[in-house]
Amino acid sequence: MDIIAPFWTFMDNSQTGLILYNQYTNGSVLQQATQDINSYFPNLNFSAEWVFVATWYEVAYYPTTGTKTTFQVVLISGGEKSFVLMNYGSLAEAVWNVQAGYDTINSFHYFTIPGSLSSSASGVNSTFSLSSNINVTGRWAFQIDSGPDNFKFKGHFYPIPGLASYRSLDGSSPLIYLQRPFVYFGKTYNYIYVNHNGHLTFNSPFSSYTPQRFPLYGSRDIIAPFWTDLDNRQNGFVLYNQYTSGSVLQQATQDINSYFPNLNFSAEWVFVATWYEVAYFPTTGTKTTFQAVLISGGQTSFVLMNYGAIASTSQNVQAGYDTIDSVHHLTIPGSFSSSASGVNSTFSLSSNINVTGRWAFQIDSGPDGCQFKNRSVQLGDFFWSDSNCTQKCTCTTSGVHCITKLCSFPETCQQTNFQFLCFNGKSA
Ligand SMILES: [Ca+2]
User: Fold this and answer.
1) Where do the NIDO domain residues begin and end (predicted)?
2) How far apart are CA 26 and CA 10, in angstroms?
3) What is the pLDDT confidence band of residue 163, given thresholds at 50, 70 and 90?
4) What spacing in Å lies between the alpha carbon of 278 and ligand 1's midpoint?
5) What does the pLDDT look like over 342-353, one tens digit per residue?
6) What separation in Å is there between the alpha carbon of 24 and the centre of ligand 1?
7) Distance from the CA of 156 to the center of ligand 1, in angstroms?
8) Where are the domains of the chain?
C-alpha cells in the first residue's frame, strides 16, 4: 500500500475536531509552496502547480473525547516533482501508538519520523512538534516523486528493479520458475531461489549465513556473489527479475561476446538478482550492493557478478561458485580476507574481464578434471595427499601429478573437505 501518514493512530472526530481538505492551483498558497520547497530543496528551480492541504484540527483520540490534536499534511506538485510537508501543532498525549511518515508498495521507499511508536510521539514534548528535518520547528519535508537513485546505479549494473523478496533475517525468495531452462555445469535447472545471505541455489532454498570456503565438496550447486550474514529487515532490498526479450538481452549478448570472443553468443534469457543497499547482521544501517546476472543462450550459460558499494565488515565473505562434489568451483580473490569488503574491496575494484567491479564466468561446463580416489578434482586444483603434507598433488591435463613438497613455515597441514592443505594461520 502507498500511504502518507502524518499521524497514524486511533482518532475520533465524532464529538470534537474537524478533518478538512482543500486544493489549490493558483494564488498565494502556490507562491508559498514554491518558496518553501526552493528553500528546503535548493537547486531544483521548483515551481508549484498544485497544492493539496489536509488538516486534522483539534481532533480527539478515541476514547478520550475532548482531547485536541492538530496536524496537517501538504502535498505539493510541480512538473515531475512532488513533495509532502507534515506540519505539527499541539499534540495531546496519546493513549495509542503513533506512526508518522510514509510507506510505499513493498516498502521500496519509506520514511519514519523519529519518535514514532514511542512515548515522544505525542504530548507537549513531541519530537514531531519540536523537531524538524529542514530546520523549521514542527515541520517535516520530503521529496516523494522518486526514491534515492531510483534504483539507478553504476553503469556496470544490470537493471535493478524487479520483484522484492520479503524482509527477513536469513530468508529466501519463493521458488522462482525460470522462463528458460538454465544449464549449470551439465545440469539443467528450471527454478531457482534467491537467498538473502548472498547466494543463489537451485534445488532448495539455503539460509546459511556462515560462509564456507569453496570448494566445499558438498551436495549443493551454489552461485554466491557475496555469501555472508546479510539482513534486509530494516534497510535494503533483495530484488529479482528475468528477461526473454528487449534491451537487456541485447546488452547481455554484447557483453558476453566481448568477454568470451569467438563464441558467436546470442542471449535468450537473463536473470538478474540484486542485493540493493542491504545491511549486514547485526549492523543495521550499513549498505552493501551487488548483483548476480545469469545469462543463457541455450546450452551455453554465464554469470556476471557486479559489485557496487560494499560496506566494511569484519565478517568473512565467500564470493564465487561451487558445484556438487566441487567438480567445478571458483573463488573470487579477496574472499575470506579483509579485502573482501569496504572501500578497497577487491570485488568492487578489480575484475577478471577488465570491467571494474564486474566478474564474468562461463558456467555451462568446465574442462575435464582428474579423478583421485574415485573423486573428481578440478583442473588446476592442488592438495596434499597425506596428513603430514609431504606429497603435493596437482590436477593437470594429463592427470594428477604428485611431488614431494612440505608446507612452508609457518603454514600448518590441515584436513579439508578433500584431502589436506597447508594453511597459513587459521583455516576455514
Ligand atoms: Ca542474514
Assistant:
1) 6-147, 225-366
2) 34
3) confident
4) 10
5) 999 999 999 999
6) 48
7) 26
8) 3-146, 151-362, 371-423
